[in-house]
Every structure is written in structure tokens, then in C-alpha cells.
Amino acid sequence: MASLELGYALEGEDFPEVYSPRKWSRSWVRRVHWGRGTALFLAAVYFIVPFYAAMQFSLQDINHHFSLQPLTQIAQAPGFFAALWLSTQLAIATMAIVLVLMVPTMIYVHLRLPRFRRVMEVITILPIVIPPIVLIVGVDGVTPLWLKSSQWLLALIYVVLAMPYVYRSLDAGLGALDLKTLVEAARSLGSGWISIIWRVLVPNLRSALLSASVLTLALVFGEFTIASLDGWTTIPVWIYLTPSINPRINTLVAMMALLVTALVLMLIVSFDRSKSHNSRRS
Q1: Whose CB among 52, 88, 138, 186 lies 3.0–4.6 Å from 196's, allowing a Cys bridge?
Q2: What is the per-residue pLDDT for 16?
Q3: Among residues 86, 48, 75, which one has the least CA distance to residue 253?
Q4: 114-133 pLDDT, tens per residue?
Q5: Angle at CA 251, nearest 5°, toward 250 and 253?
């Protein structure tokens, strides 16, 4: 009797359907985000086609064959290595100064003054609003002569220009952390503030610091107005001012700088993903 009652009860229930390849393929097609894929494809075309056209113009010879001779001509161009070395010095100095200033400040604001974050957002957006010409004219008017004749004045100005990008990178990184818990745990173990910042917070902010560094690097290697008005020949100024028989060299240098920046950004993204994947495994 029990078996009969169980059979009658089971007759009224709906069993799950048997696996069907057609239904699985249809569900997979539905999961594909065609809008997102189309947007990514259009963005890739928008960036890749002009880059390819510029590289084709730079590396083609008279017979429309690709040649690597312009790469050797870059090294022989007058003033290229001096401009590259100056831009490298300014980039390193700017990254060091802006990170030393912004990291402790952002940590203190997130911990002690969370309401002050809106004020900092307004302050850090000002370098984007103020035109570079106005900024360099105002700085030259109040800068002493010994600093005005030094290349490090550009580094100080670039610190101001890089502040909006560094602030937003660090703000996103700190917002993803349980900052109070980490600091209280480190303080309970007897760590000082320098040790907390260097050994606890900086490793957790690695991706944000790398993003801020790359944005600062791209800013320094791409800024033209302030360096030109201040009389220093950086890479953008060299590309603009260097008279060359072959104009392909200047275009090739600009495309190489863009390519290096894009590759560094891709490395940072892949590094961040590998770290997050390893953390999930552990």
C-alpha cells in the first residue's frame, strides 16, 4: 500500500527535464551580452584604426613596404635622449612627491575626517578646471628665481596636475578596504603609523598605487603647454619643435609612447586580476 500511495503521489509531480544540448546552447546565447560586446568592439576600432594608420605612415618607405629604419633614425635624432632623460626625471620625481603627499593624507581623511572627502573632491578637481596657461603664468609670478631656473619646478607643477587622478585612484582603493579594522588590528599589535602604512596598507593598495603611478607617468610624458611655456624641452616639446627631414620620426615617437602606456596599463590590470584570483584560491 505504501508503494502504491508513493506511486500515485509521484504521478502528480513535475520532474526536471532531461539535459538537452539545444536548450543549453539557447541559454548560452541568451547569456551573451551583445550590447557590451558591440560597445567594446566599437571602442577597439576607434582606438586601433588611428594607431594602425599612424604606425603605417611611420614605418612605410617610398615603395610602400614596411621598414624598421625609422627606429634607428630616432636614436640619431638630435636632442632625443636629452628630452627623454628630462621627461624620465620629471616623471620619477612627480610620482614620488605626489604619492608621499597623497597616501598619508587620504588615509587620514578616510579615518578621521570622512566628511571632508567632498571638500577634497572639489579641491582636487580644480587643476582640471584651471587652464594650464593660467597655472604656469601664476606660478612664474610668485616663484623665486633659483627655483624658476630649475627643472624641478615642472615636477612641482605636475604634482598639482596629477592630484585629481591620484586622488581618485587612492579613494577607490581605500574605499574597497575595511580600513578601520586593519588599522585597529595593527595598533593593537603595537605597530606605529609608519609601520601600518608601509607594511599593512600599502600592500593592500598595490593596484591603486600602480594605477596612480601610470596615470602620473602618462601625464608627464604627454604634457606640452606648461613645459613649452617654461622653456624646457620634454618629449612632447621635442616632438613639436624638432625639425626633421623625415616627419615620420616624430609620429613614431608619439605612437611608441602611447603603446608603452597602454601596455603598462594592461600589465597592471592583469597583475590585479592574478592577485585577486590567488586571494580567492587561498
Answers
A1: 186
A2: 47
A3: 75
A4: 888 888 888 888 888 888 88
A5: 65
**Which string of b and e fits 5-25 if b means at least 16 CB within 10 Å?**
eeeeeeeeeeeeeeeeeeeee
Q: Indicate the length of the chain as a whole number.
A: 282
Q: What is the pLDDT of residue 105?
A: 92
Asked if the model's pLDDT at residue 174 lies above 80, the reply is yes
Q: Residues near 6 by Cβ (< 8 Å), separated by ≥ 6?
A: none
* Residues 99, 159 contacting (CB under 8 angstroms): no
Instruction: State the pLDDT at residue 280.
Output: 56
Of the candidates 161, 170, 163, the residue with the CA atom closest to the CA atom of residue 197: 170
| HEC readout, 21-65 | HHHHHHHHHHHCCHHHHHHHHHHHHHHHHHHHHHHHHHHECCCCC
CB 59 within 8 A of CB 252: yes
3-state SS string for 99-140 = HHHHHHHHHHHHHHCHHHHHHHHHHHHHHHHCCHHHHHHHHH
Of all residues in the chain, the percent with pLDDT exceeding 70 is 81
pLDDT at 96 over 90: yes
Domain spans, the chain:
78-281
Question: What cell numbers appear for 98 in the block?
Answer: 605626489
Q: How confident is the model at residue 94 (pLDDT cuts 50, 70, 90)?
A: very high
Looking at residue 277, its pLDDT comes to 55
How far apart (Å, rounded) are the C-alpha atoms in residues 102 and 123? 13
Residue of 261, 219, 208 whose CA lies nearest to 102: 208
Where is average pLDDT lowest: 10-14, 77-81, 230-234, 268-272? Answer: 10-14
Q: Is 149 helix (H, G, I), strand (E, B) or coil?
A: coil
* Domain 78-281 top-level CATH class: mainly alpha
Q: Is 177 strand, coil or helix? A: coil
